[in-house]
Design goal:
It is a single chain. This protein is an alpha/beta fold and 94 residues long. It has one domain. 21% of the residues lie in helices and 39% in strands. It contains one helix and seven strands. Strands 1, 2, 4, 5 and 7 form a five-stranded mixed β-sheet that branches. A two-stranded parallel ribbon has the order 3-6. Strand 1 and strand 2 form a beta hairpin. The longest helix is centred in the first third of the chain and has 20 residues. The radius of gyration is 17 Å and the shape is globular.
């Protein structure tokens, strides 16, 4: 039983560490949303940004992508431009 408890503890630490280290934090309408990758892929969809005309805007507090990871920005067919900025005080790691 003790070995099982250790494994559960180590697994929990691994999940906590991996989720806190590799994440994209986006500010949307004053609230923070953290996106955790799915197998190294971040899907940044239209509903996470704001639309003005045919433009989709994303404002990130922090934006970090590790080696081998990708971020895909998507919007509906009427979106002509996707514009993103990082406005937090920390440097991005891409």
């Amino acid at each position: 039983m003790r070995a099982r408890n250790r494994l559960v503890f180590l697994f929990s630490l691994t999940l906590i560490y991996s989720n806190s280290y590799s994440e994209v934090v986006e500010v949307v309408s004053g609230s923070n949303i953290s996106l955790v990758s799915s197998n190294g892929q971040y899907d940044i969809k239209e509903e996470l940004g704001s639309i003005q005309g045919n433009n989709l805007f994303h404002d990130f507090n922090q934006f970090n992508i590790d080696a081998g990871e990708t971020a895909t920005f998507s919007g509906s067919s009427n979106i002509e431009n996707i514009i993103s900025r990082v406005s937090g005080g920390d440097p991005s790691a891409i």
